[in-house]
Amino acid sequence: MTESRQNVAFPLSIATSSLNPFPAKSEPPYDLVSKLRAISQAKFQAIELAFPDFLSFAQQHFGRKVDDHDWDNLCIAAKEVRGHCKELRLHIMMLQPFSNFEGWKTDTEEWVKKREDAFERAEGWIRIMEELGTDMLQVGSTDSPNIKNDKNYLALDLAQLADMLAEHNMRLAYENWCWATAAPTWREVYDLVVATDRPNIGLCLDTFQTAAGEWGDPTTESGRLEGISQSELEGKFQKSLESLSSTIPPDRIYLLQVSDAYKPPKPLYPEPDDSGMRPRGRWSGAFRPMPGKPGGYLPIVEVAKAVKGTGFKGWFSIEVFDSGPTGEGRHLGDMGAEAEEIMRLSRKFVEQVQQS
């Protein structure tokens, strides 16, 4: 019997960036429309539209380079994407990732310009969201070192963005990036969400970001946090997850992103690279497979069970960045088969989470 889109306990979504070859320069990127077809055929209900995929689509649509601030033409392209998704019965659940928004200092002209650009980008992305027909913007906790790391200051920026979105009946899904400057954990992003005191801001929780930040460490031989015993680490992590389940109201969780991690074949250098990216950020961008893939080792089922324990019944959304266990790259092969395999593993993961 053909499986329907509704026969799993949680609605399933996938980020379009999950169907990318790694490293990206190893082969031509897959076009967005082909990704959408594969995602639809695999019976996902929705997508997270990754902005790089959208920008690539816009450039293909116009047959020329399109600047990422060319709002008029990006809006035209957004209408086209919306049409493709409607035809394929895919809901555009969210536009992502909106980064380095909150907390810019105003001490120098350079930082003032960065702050002005952040708000200009927000206005432009809202225009794009209107044309896409999506009501949710994912904002990753900023990893810029040049921010004012003050809870009230950060919350004011986020509240202003939430107000901008509210004018269009839109929501802000705030995610802790585990290498972030100010809010790398679920508790810190939740505290900021509460501090904004806005009804249209909630959480984008993530199995990788929580487990990788509070349990894993790509700079150690063991691949986990060191300096304490493993039993102490397990106990501390379990207490954090119990706190998550008892602290966060389910309606404050807009989605749960799902991925695992490979332990790098050798520890990553602990300092930022030439681009300024911290080791957990480098780990996140290339070593994140689907749950159930050989080599994945983070306690992600426990994270998902803790989220389920809040009473959450919303989106489980797949976001993987899989360059293979060695990090040397991976040929994606047939995109349709890849999407089908991701769906199979997604259903298996949901079954594991449902088990008591």
From TrEMBL:
User: Which species is the source of this protein?
Assistant: Lepidopterella palustris CBS 459.81
Q: Which SUPFAM superfamilies match?
A: Xylose isomerase-like
**Know the name of this protein?**
Xylose isomerase-like protein
Tell me which Gene3D superfamilies the record gives: Divalent-metal-dependent TIM barrel enzymes
Q: Which GO terms describe its molecular function?
A: isomerase activity
Entry keywords, A to Z: Isomerase
Pinpoint the Xylose isomerase-like TIM barrel domain residues.
36-334
The question of whether Isomerase is a record keyword is answered with yes
